[in-house]
Amino acid sequence: MRLSDSIESFIKTLMNEDATEVELKRNELAEYFGCAPSQINYVLATRFSPDHGYLTESRRGGGGYIRIVRVVQSGAQRLMYLVNERIGDSLTEEETLRLISQLKEQRIVTADEAALMAAALSSRAMGVPVPDSLKDALRARMMKSMLMSIAARNRA
Amino acid sequence: MRLSDSIESFIKTLMNEDATEVELKRNELAEYFGCAPSQINYVLATRFSPDHGYLTESRRGGGGYIRIVRVVQSGAQRLMYLVNERIGDSLTEEETLRLISQLKEQRIVTADEAALMAAALSSRAMGVPVPDSLKDALRARMMKSMLMSIAARNRA
DNA sequence: CAGAAAACTGACTTTCTTTGACCATTTAAG
DNA sequence: CTTAAATGGTCAAAGAAAGTCAGTTTTCTG
Prior knowledge:
The structure is a homodimer.
Chain A: H1 3-15, E1 21-24, H2 26-33, H3 37-47, E2 54-59, E3 65-70, H4 75-86, H5 93-105, H6 111-121, H7 132-155
Antiparallel strand pairs in A: 1-3, 2-3
Helix pairs in contact in A: 1-3, 2-3, 4-7, 5-6
Chain A binds a DNA duplex through residues 2-4, 25-27, 35-42, 46, 58-66, 94.
């Protein structure tokens, strides 16, 4: 297993159940995992970003710390944010898959729905001679369309 | 025997019996068979494509992997195959909607899934300057891709 | 056998991870 | 107040896989 994955799950374990917040010392954690301290920042950036539903604060100097807060947000809120702000008028395949997997992880969509969306928007499915820029525009539109459909279902 | 065939059966052996999923390292496998790593991609593309009933995911970088998932065949899925035959390489919006509603009526897909598919493929979602013929080709591909995903649903 | 299709390879690309050197901020001592 | 110590942050570069694609070789087929 990758170091980053280990650190990620370690942090998530610390935060599990009720706690929505965890505080840690970058250097201690790095020492514990025997890695460069900056590795911790990498994990934060790639697994605990706002897109992943987390916020982080920190302080330097003596008694410094890193605090990670899991943002609780209703599914509908999250979906609306994605539709109205996050997704503009272009989405690459990578972005699309990342977003979908985040929605799944946050249990806003089911695994089946996630798979369905990914299937629709994968470049394999779109393997038709259209320039990438148009594919990205199409993806953005379809993604929003599907997310709104899901939002509507949740309300029902 | 051809190399590709050997690799194919090797992978299928790994996946035999109960396992519907196998994870491997491209470079290791290539080394084992004494071939170029890209040969593995060739085998995946020609023998483990969605058309063949498999889905693949992968990650690059340290600790990278390739995962192959076999889509389990069951009653509803055989229907999917029929449907796949019927959908050629072009689908108008009307045909699409008709198909979706048939699938829903036959309870092959849920209402939610039907809505999701319709949302993805509606002309509104696809309202991007692409000629209709291409849109229809895209629809066909995406529809098949989504149906494939639904067929894969409920896998262990 | 000739042409087409399939198999194969290698060079190049892209993505993800890990590290280290250097920078910035905060607190504690002098 | 000044300076040193203690933290955390940034960024670029190296390393570790996997992906792509054009071109070559092999195999099939009429």
